[in-house]
Amino acid sequence: MTVFGITLRNSIMLISHYEHLVDVEGASRGPETAVRGAEERLAPIVMTALVTALGLLPLALRWVRFAPRPAAG
Question: What is the model's pLDDT at position 66?
Answer without folding.
Answer: 61
